[in-house]
From TrEMBL:
Transfers an acetyl group from acetyl-CoA to L-homoserine, forming acetyl-L-homoserine. This is Homoserine O-acetyltransferase. Gene3D superfamilies: alpha/beta hydrolase. PANTHER family: HOMOSERINE O-ACETYLTRANSFERASE. Pathway: Amino-acid biosynthesis; L-methionine biosynthesis via de novo pathway; O-acetyl-L-homoserine from L-homoserine: step 1/1. SUPFAM superfamilies: alpha/beta-Hydrolases. GO terms for molecular function: homoserine O-acetyltransferase activity. InterPro entries: AB_hydrolase_1, AB_hydrolase_fold, HAT_MetX-like. It catalyses: L-homoserine + acetyl-CoA = O-acetyl-L-homoserine + CoA. It comes from Adhaeribacter aerolatus. Homodimer. Substrate binds at R201, D319. One of its GO terms (cellular component) is cytoplasm. The keyword Coiled coil does not apply.
């Protein structure tokens, strides 16, 4: 399906107090809204993904999958601060006629959700059957269910948290330091910071997988080898792969957005924030996730009324939310089999 663009030609205030003169949101839709208008599945994507969910969440979304265009009206919007069409650091600032680069305003998860909800209103959707997201997408889904409980019937969050941990913030800061060490980041050009971004992605991969994953997939059979290891090649390959499809300015912006996530901000406490959710909720953890350990998902489930907690046993760490689609399908089908509490 071709991507669509929603242009909001009015000032868009963000949580920091700054204002974007206008924004645009790139999004994909699949399928059609049924006559009852109760088949909307809204996907909130993670850090470097885009709005084409049928491409990056294969096995869960697509023809013959649990979420398919034949049955569902599937929507995924690219997030604020990204480089895939929605307003972000590479967008032109109408006030200067130049890209924002580092001057792009700080964006929080709540700002992303505010943009999602503008798109929801534009599409004239009053009821969302399910909002689903993993990682940064799960942070958005949680926040949206808190802000707009009247619009969301079911909430599914995977490998995410109620507030970003010092551990997660530490990983993000280390990656930003790698980008800032690349002097081209400060030269205000579209490919600025590319070498730093490559290093940052290599760091991030260590948190997306784990010791056991690398021990198996990057194991060396050649006992005499002293250099050019498989793990080294893998880090270089994955770093270059991201550089070819993403942008350092967007990466810095979005990693800071993730750091800002805290559902308790201005709500008394994290527990009080989670207590505002009224959707029927499924929280899924991944046994081997070292970036968002299962303790974080159990905490979410404990503080949302009548939430269900399930756990995926995966070899792939945090990335398991994209890979273990068979297990996810079974868990979600079982979740839907229980009547929604009114």
């Amino acid at each position: 399906m071709p991507q669509e663009i929603f242009k909001y030609p009015f000032p868009f205030g963000v949580e920091s107090g700054q204002t974007l003169p206008e924004i645009q949101i790139t999004y994909h839709t699949y399928g059609k809204l049924n006559p009852e208008k109760n088949n909307v599945i809204w996907v909130c994507h993670a850090l470097t993904a885009n709005s084409d969910v049928l491409d990056w969440w294969k096995g869960l979304f697509g023809e013959q999958n649990l979420f398919n265009p034949e049955e569902h009206f599937i929507i995924c919007a690219n997030i604020l601060g990204s480089c895939y069409g929605t307003t972000g650091p590479l967008s032109v600032n109408p006030g200067t006629g130049q890209p924002y680069y580092q001057d792009f305003p700080p964006i929080t998860i709540r700002d992303m959700v505010k943009a999602h909800d503008l798109l929801r209103q534009h599409l004239e959707i009053e009821k969302i059957h399910t909002v689903i997201g993993g990682s940064l997408g799960g942070q958005q889904a949680l926040e949206w269910a808190i802000q707009k409980p009247q619009h969301i019937q079911n909430l599914i969050v995977v490998a995410t948290n109620a507030y970003h941990s010092p551990w997660g913030i530490g990983f993000n800061e280390a990656q930003r330091l790698a980008i800032f060490a690349d002097e081209t980041y400060f030269q205000h050009k579209p490919d600025g910071g590319s070498k730093g971004l490559k290093a940052a992605r290599a760091m991030a991969l260590l948190s997306y997988r784990n010791y056991d994953t690398y021990s198996k997939t990057q194991f060396e059979n050649d006992l005499a080898k002293t250099d050019n290891f498989r793990a080294s090649s893998y880090q270089n390959y994955q770093g270059e792969k991201l550089v070819n499809r993403f942008n350092a300015y967007a990466y810095v912006s979005l990693s800071k957005t993730m750091d800002s996530h805290n559902v308790g901000r201005h709500r008394g406490s994290v527990e009080e924030g989670l207590g505002l959710i009224r959707a029927k909720t499924l929280v899924v953890g991944i046994s081997s996730d070292v970036l968002f350990p299962v303790s974080e998902q159990r905490y979410i489930a404990q503080h949302i009324n009548n939430a269900a907690y399930r756990e995926i046993d995966s070899f792939y760490g945090h990335d398991g939310f994209l890979i273990e689609t068979g297990q996810l399908t079974q868990i979600i089908e079982a979740f839907y089999g229980v009547p929604v509490e009114k």
